[in-house]
Every structure is written in C-alpha cells, then in structure tokens.
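Case study 2.
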Amino acid sequence: MSTRRKNKKPLFEPGLIPAPGGLLEWRDSQHFDRWQDRPCALCDKPTPMRSHYGEPAHKACAEAWIAANPTDARRQGRFASDIQPKRQRADDHV
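Prediction:
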C-alpha cells in the first residue's frame, strides 16, 4: 500500500523581527487571505491578514505587539518580516 504525500506548500521561513517601533514587511501574498476574514489574534476585529504561521493578525496590531513585547517577539518569532530576496547588481547580467 502506497501513501500519498499532499502537495501542500510549506509555510515560508520568517525573516527579521523589526526593532520595537519598526515596521513589518509583509509583501508576500501569503499574508493575505482573499477568501475569508478571521478575528485578529490581538484585537478580535476581522482581518484578511495572516502572519507567517497563518495566524490572523492586522499588521499594525503585530507591530504594536512587537513594540510592547520585544523580548517575546525575538524569542518566539511570532511576527516577522518577509525575507528580502537578494537583488542582482546590474553588472551581474550577461
């Protein structure tokens, strides 16, 4: 009997935790659920936004939480920025 693997896309790896008062970079489409708003884990108001772990959260709420809980933010990595792709220099092109 063979088992099938689900072709589920893995969660992407979070980047840097911004400094308290800094802004998150959530540009990847995985931070937005266009089908369903869910209650924010921090303020309970509906949001289409999602953290790296799929947790519903407004970006502003996540930034405020990081500012209020800097130690937990670094330890847990609960809300993090996207990993920035390396930019190619103009002279790298052939």
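The first strand starts at residue 38 and ends at 39.
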